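As the next step, I selected for study one protein, both as residues and as discrete backbone shape codes, as given directly below:
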Amino acid sequence: MQQRALAQFMIYSTIVLVMLQEELAAVNLAKYRKAQKELEEAEERADQAEVNMSRMRAKNRTSVSVTKTPTVSFIKALCSKGSSTLATIVAVSGLIASVDRA
């Protein structure tokens, strides 16, 4: 009788142990899947950040290379403000040089 009770106890304890191990495996699998999902989301954000950075760099390159041509009315206004002749000549020559570089 004692051997039978001992055998039943061992079977019961083994079943409980297997159930606990299955539960632990399920928890670990859920943690793994969560971490994997977070990693994929972080990679997507990093990829999007790289795309945005490339766009900004390209936009900055094009905006830096674009220069504005001084208009005739701007040059006339600059000359008519009563500034000294030397300052006007320097300003206009600087504008002309910037147009020549473009």
Observations:
- Helices lie at 2-65, 72-79, 85-101.
- The two ends are 104 Å apart (CA to CA).
